[in-house]
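I trust your eye. Have a critical look at both lines of this record:
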Amino acid sequence: MPDLTHDDDQAEAVRALLITMADRLTHDEPDDPITEADRLALCYELTQGDEPLYSLLRARSAERFRVSTRGQYADRLRTKAGVR
């Protein structure tokens, strides 16, 4: 993992990971349901549990899951990342 000692570096890394999460969700079964457990597992997988990135991604990708599918959640992540 890169050295993320500066807030700007951390923010950019989290933004990139949000986009990666969205891409993964869009391409892998986008019509399937998304759960909190799915979100946490994906955060862990993408960061390998490395701190502080894991905690930052978990916080930034948090959702109350008003969305029901992986594709809908991917759209929300892209919005959070400033892509939409």
